[in-house]
Amino acid sequence: MATETLVSFAVERLGDKLIQEAKFLKGVSRQADRLHRDLRAMQCFLEEADKKQEEDSRVRNWVSDIREAVYNAEDIIDMFILNAQSLRRNFFLKCGFKKLINCYKVGKKIEALQLGLLDISNRQDALGIKNIGEGRSRSAENQMLQGLRRSSPHAEEHVVVSLEKEADELVNQLIGGDLRRRVISLVGMGGIGKTTLAKKVYNHRQVVECFPDCRAWAYVSPDCRPRDVYMQIIKQLVCTSTKDQQVLEMVEKLQEHELGDFLHEHLKEKRYLIVLDDVWSCRDWNCLAKVSSNDPDCLGNVFPDGGNCSRLLLTTRDKDVALHADARSTPQEMQLLSKQKSWNLFCGKAFLDHVDADRYPPDLVQLGREMVDKCNGLPLAIVVFGGLLSRDMSHTEWRKVHDNINAYLAKEGSQTGVMTVLNLSYIDLPSYLKPCFLHLSLFPEDYVISTRKLFLLWIAEGFVLSAEQADQQSMKVTAEVYLNELINRNLIQVVRMSVNARVVECRVHDLMRELAIRKAKEQNFFRTHDIEDPLSSSTSNSSLFSSKCRRQSIYSDMERYASVEHNTPYLRSLLFFNLGHEICRFSQLDFIGKCFKVLRVLDLEGVKVESLPSIVGTLIHLRYLGLRHTGLKLLPLSIGNLRSLQTLDVNNLKQVPNVIWKIQNMRYLYMEGQKYDIPLKIDTLENLQVLSGITFKQWIQNNSSKLTCLGKLKLEGRYELVEGVEFWKSIAKLRVLKSLYLKASEESSFPSLAMDSCLYLSKLDIKGHMQKLSESFQFPPNLSQLTLDSCRLDCDPMPILEKLPKLLTLRLRAESYLGTEMHVSANGFPQLKVLQLFELSKVIKLNIENGAIPWLMQLHCQFSTRISGVDKLSNLVEVKIVIDSMIPSFSPFARFLSTYRSRKYHLYWDHSWTTNRNGQKEFWTRRRKASDCQTCAATGLTSVQNSAVAVEMIGPIFSRWESTQEKGS
Prior knowledge:
The protein is an alpha/beta fold. It is built from 33 helices and 29 strands. The strands form 4 sheets. The chain has an 18-stranded mixed sheet, with helices on both faces. Strand 7 and strand 8 form a beta hairpin. The radius of gyration is 31 Å and the shape is globular. The termini are far apart.
């Protein structure tokens, strides 16, 4: 599981502490160094053990013992450093004597721990797990699971949710398009219906007619064995009658590579369709297709490209596999079912005669709907419950299942193995992703998670290990890579993305969260405390949490939680969610400093507190302190003692205490909304990477050249309080600064800004009144993303901005321009790909000349803005039009769009309605990829021509709407 990564982190951490805390560990350095070596020796063995423990209880117990030993080692070292720090402040002889006693006790604890590690190592041999890393034998349990999951295209699906639209799109890709051999992939989380859809398409009449003599279906499985897969295919394609038995006997004697060659020769002159169901990794695809590791672009030596429209259809949980197999084909990503489709599927399974569910008792219907909601659109779970409940239509049975829904989800077997199927995705995770996935179990159900916060939590927890620990700049980048891997594996769902296609918010499917909770509890990874959790008198306080519990997630109110007796002295993370709005009394937070002395993560976001007690300053191991939206106005001066703190996230303080400069490890400092602009020293923070919320005046009083790691900076307040030339000189000294955000207060304004000395700046946001827009040569020369917000410019900004040679994204928002027309001249914006025009209430026309914005791919604007020249934008992929639902013409326009049927438009474009975060309606349309259009090859259009034809369809929709209004239709 995640043990190997946790041990790796602990080993690294102990090694770091031997260096960093040498002055504290002076009395026990020899024992600590030996402990470090012992753990490092075990670390070499753990990665293979981590893979095996799912199927071997002996290994699982052995790994659990190592995990406990690692926890104990961390606890001993952390508590020793904490005690040494407290004694360091006092130089009396008695304290020196206490220090000797402390060293002696810790030395004895380390010796006892080393004896325990020796016993664990000896039991490795006694348990017969000495050669755990040899081979990849499958346990009986694993073989049974694979047998249950083995798919066949002929297995009848008695109840299939409506998949006509998805099936039609997939059929079009299989039988149409270009002549090259293509790999078309169905991607989605476990249980979402990939195999079901693949079966439906495989047996579709048009597909059968297109591939009459050369179709085959092969189940791959997590334990990919190319020989088995080749034999499945060969038996369907070659050995179809009794006279082929001799061929079959001959084939079965061939080696794996010979089977691949045989299959290649057989397929070479044929138009074939082969389904590879359940491909788990890029490595598995390489093995099956015999793709050379030296040439990843090679098609492979098994499935030939005869230029005759041959197709492979893959089902996989990992989007990376789909893109790796064929980067030129767009994977078809399976979506969770809507509430109505979920209910229809449930009724088809639970009420076997398929009659209207309204004819059944309302109590059963109510229970059924609640269970369907719990499934959250996952077809496998819905089918499992429907089949289970169809056996007994009594209220008692339905109530029993309803009240024990998680237990039924967790049952093994072909009928109720939902968690077993989902668990395969967890087992397949590399070791470095497992703790990140388990960490998601801390968040409440349906909680929308900020990825910025998630990255910082992962870093503070130690889950993100860069190639070189000194390379701290890369850790946030690495955390984002981890997140994208989990998304591509369909373990996390994207909620919102930024304009440059980065994930801003995400969430976890309810059933995936249940899986994470189960796995996390197995490892003492965390415990939750809900408002309905065992705080009742029937449960003793001591049983609430294990004394070795490392993380707690609190969903109840602070007062109730504070009243509980806490017996988790080694707690490392404490997070609060969904709290009430009562003000938290000062004394209520004291227990955190008293009970959890080795805390690394403390997130009080949303807890309404009057003030923070000074005892928080004793948490010297704290790495993350989240205080956003707490209502705090002041921080205690003792916060300067948090020497391990990496992240401080707070907002709307009256003032920030001038002690932040003491926190040498600070990397991410967020403090937006300061009321008073008092001096703040920060130029001692040489590790600082993100600084958000410092005022212009505070900034100019520091020596910016010392902030050698600062990559993102947000300044706010009154710009006129600083001298412009000196300010921009201070910004130019930041050699790694990539992102700059300037926010002027309402009573302030920006003059023309001379930013050309900022050679490394690529992203610039300016919010606030601008007296005049800077000339194009005054902008940073490498600027790629620009946002202007509330600038209230009188002159059209386009003639200046269109000259920025490297600009890729431009956003004009919230009255950034007060005029009525904008004009982009020919050759303007030579590299721009994204243009957003939002809340420009006075702009009624945008004119784009021929040859302007040649690479524009995304256009977002208001419905009130008429755009001419859009038909010349041949690379346009996405158009989003925000429509104020309060305008009288909104409803007829919506009806008009729903009935508009331009053949060319619907052939090449998809469209839908959404509602943005401001409650406004958005008409969203995206061009389909040319290779996915069935008629692309038939029409003879090139990719560019196809794009142009598609773009031309957008304008007529709105032109025709305007003409209907003029005629009074």
